[in-house]
Design a protein that fits this description.
- The chain has 336 residues and is α/β, with parallel strands linked by helices.
- It has helices at 5-12, 16-24, 31-44, 50-57, 73-88, 102-114, 129-137, 161-174, 188-203, 221-232, 248-260, 278-282, 294-310; strands at 62-67, 92-97, 119-122, 142-145, 155-159, 180-184, 214-216, 242-245, 270-275, 288-291, 318-321, 324-326.
- The protein is elongated and about 85 Å long.
- It starts with a helix and ends in a 10-residue tail after the last strand.
């Protein structure tokens, strides 16, 4: 039979209440006693019951994270960073990848609530704001991450996507490019990045009147390649000399297709991505990208979530952090 809390208390020569305080990291107990109880739990291979812990302390030490796609390196890196912060505070992380599907998101939320998670970090955009409203009405601690629903009063941590798109475009314009293309995915942040792109062109007096040079697609490397193939398949007079992709996966798809088309990067085509994931550093040539301050974003998300767990009625905060242009080898002056 599995050892119980009673077995731990008996072997350590302490009360059950003392063992419970050690488990919950609460109460005034000497370091010597904590170490002794901890050693006995290791010797007995004691695993506390999450259900029992939830009934007594109203916490399970688990956090739910919902992301749109674990294959997207930005969300994979975000999940790892959130996990690190969670483990530092003694919590475990349950990661759910929704594939941007609202029905799947609803099933995962139901699952996580049945698991009695202490709180939720929702990085997966939902097209159903009522889902978030219901969670808030039920006082479920949650933080929206890398996406926000402006009409809902909720905790959120985002980057200034509009400014990032504007920065990327200003930089390409400074290199002399006037024929630009953009590949956007279907996440809300990418819509703002595209708005920044278009407004930067407008502010510079650069026309953007070729519909073939703007593509909306889902964020995969293959879709980036297909979008680039359509743009680069135009005549030399029509095709862009620079492409802004609204995430690094799409940008690397552009790099791949450019090589297939016999174009040299950046001599014939400049490419800028967004997110500054590890892929941006290891691809060839290394990708110029707009960096999101990922560690700061995940740290702020955990701070907001813990505040909400401790006090569900605490004021909601919307934190927006600044992006940064990271120049590498995928961008250069306009050809000729």
């Amino acid at each position: 039979m599995k050892p119980t809390i009673y077995d731990v208390a008996r072997e350590a020569g302490v009360s059950i209440a003392t063992v419970s305080k050690v488990l919950n990291k609460s109460g005034r107990i000497s370091d010597k006693t904590r170490q002794k109880v901890g050693r006995i739990m290791e010797e007995l291979n004691y695993q506390p019951s999450l259900v029992a812990s939830a009934l007594t302390s109203r916490r399970t030490g688990t956090i739910g994270l919902m992301i749109p796609d674990i294959a997207n390196p930005f969300f994979a890196e975000a999940a790892r960073s959130i996990e690190d912060y969670a483990q530092e505070q003694g919590s475990d992380l349950i990661v759910c990848s929704t594939d941007r599907n609202d029905e799947k998101a609803a099933r995962y939320i139901s699952l996580l609530l049945r698991k009695r998670v202490d709180g939720l970090i929702i990085a997966s955009h939902t097209g159903n704001p009522d889902m978030i409203r219901r969670l808030l009405a039920d006082h479920v601690p949650l933080v929206l991450f890398s996406a926000d629903i402006r009409m809902i009063e909720s905790n959120s941590v985002t980057v200034d996507d509009y400014k990032g798109g504007y920065q990327a475009t200003e930089y390409l314009l400074s290199l002399g490019h006037r024929k630009l293309g953009i590949i956007s995915d279907n996440l809300p942040g990418s819509k703002l990045r595209a708005e920044g792109f278009l407004d930067a062109l407008k502010a510079a007096g650069v026309p953007f009147d070729n519909p073939a040079n703007i593509t909306h697609t889902s964020a995969t490397l293959e879709n980036g390649r297909k979008a680039a193939a359509a743009m680069l398949g135009q005549t030399e007079a029509e095709r862009p000399t620079a492409v802004f992709a609204c995430n690094d996966l799409l940008a690397i798809g552009v790099l791949k297709e450019a090589r297939t088309a016999g174009l040299s990067i950046p001599r014939d085509l400049s490419v800028v991505g967004f997110d500054n994931t590890m892929l941006a550093e290891i691809c060839h040539p290394a990708l110029t990208s707009i960096a999101q301050p990922l560690r700061e974003m995940t740290e702020q998300a955990m701070i907001l979530l813990n505040q909400s767990i401790d006090n569900p009625d605490s004021p909601k905060r919307k934190i927006m952090l600044m992006p940064e242009l990271v120049v590498r080898h995928s961008t250069g002056p306009v050809p000729g």
